[in-house]
Specification:
- By secondary structure, the protein is mostly beta strands.
- It has a single domain (2-73), classed as Beta-grasp domain (Ubiquitin-like (UB roll)).
- It is built from 1 helix and 7 strands.
- The chain is 9% helix and 36% strand.
- A 5-stranded mixed β-sheet has the order 4-1-7-5-6, with no helix packed on it. Strands 2-3 form a two-stranded antiparallel ribbon.
């Protein structure tokens, strides 16, 4: 199981409320790309900051039981 944190506009909005922290069971060998697909998060490669256990990660990184994942959209303003 991984602990998943969704930041800002990526928070899940449901009838039960808004969720920014989830626990997910993943199949062995699942990558961050799998998580993004499951959650239907469709951002360009440079549109997300992916953090696993406090370190920058890529979509191809394999996740392990107990990992803490943060998915942060790259937002700019002016």
């Amino acid at each position: 199981m991984i602990e998943l944190h969704l930041h800002t506009i990526l928070q899940l909005k449901t009838e039960a409320g808004t969720f920014r922290k989830l626990n997910m069971e993943l199949p062995l060998g699942a990558t961050l790309a799998v998580v993004l697909n499951i959650l239907d998060i469709q951002f360009p490669e440079d549109g997300l900051m992916l953090i696993v256990n406090g370190r920058t990660a890529s979509r191809a990184d394999v996740l392990n039981d107990g990992d803490i994942v943060h998915i942060i959209p790259a937002i700019s303003g002016g």
